[in-house]
Design brief:
Number of strands: 7
Largest sheet: 5 strands, mixed, barrel
Order of helices and strands: HEHEEEEEEH
Shape: elongated
Helix content: 25-40%
Distance between the termini: 55 Å
Mean pLDDT: 82
Radius of gyration: 24 Å
CATH class of one domain: Mainly Beta
CATH architecture of one domain: Beta Barrel
Low-confidence stretches: 129-134
């Protein structure tokens, strides 16, 4: 076998191993928590989905209740349109978490309550205001 054929077989072998590895990692993730499907609150409740999911919505005004025994434990109502869902979260809350905040939660739906283990708040509109108005950009072009 000449060196060109050896080189070709080596390249084909590397490609086959890489394709196999990508397929294996995609179907068998090391961390099952990394796999979460983004669904609507309505679909979650209608289908009674118990697998790990992500939800998005607004925190209902006046619904945040922090436990008196553990300040990390809190419950709140997640609103998406007219649909509401009770969410329980027991970890450190983001600074922007408050009534009316737009949030994304990740966790599991069990017995009518969504048990979240991840809570993210979307940036407040005050940070986005300047980006919406092109006239507020202070950009100067650099001549080369």
């Amino acid at each position: 076998m000449n060196s060109n054929k050896k080189f070709l077989f080596m390249i084909i072998g590397v490609i086959v191993v890489v394709i196999f590895w990508i397929g294996w990692v995609s179907t068998n993730p090391a961390d099952e928590k990394a796999m979460a499907t983004f669904v609507s609150v309505e679909k979650l409740m209608k289908d009674n989905m118990s697998q790990r999911t992500k939800l998005g919505g607004l925190v209902k005004d006046g619904s945040i209740v922090v436990s008196k025994t553990s300040y990390l434990d809190c419950t709140f109502i997640l609103k998406e349109g007219d649909t509401e869902l009770a969410v329980k979260y027991d970890r450190t809350r983001p600074d922007l978490f408050k009534d009316g905040a737009e949030v994304i939660v990740t966790g599991q739906y069990l017995n009518g309550i969504f048990y979240a283990d991840e809570l993210q708040t979307k940036c407040a509109s005050r940070y986005e205001g300047d980006l919406r108005d092109e006239n507020s950009y202070n950009l100067t072009e650099i001549d080369s």
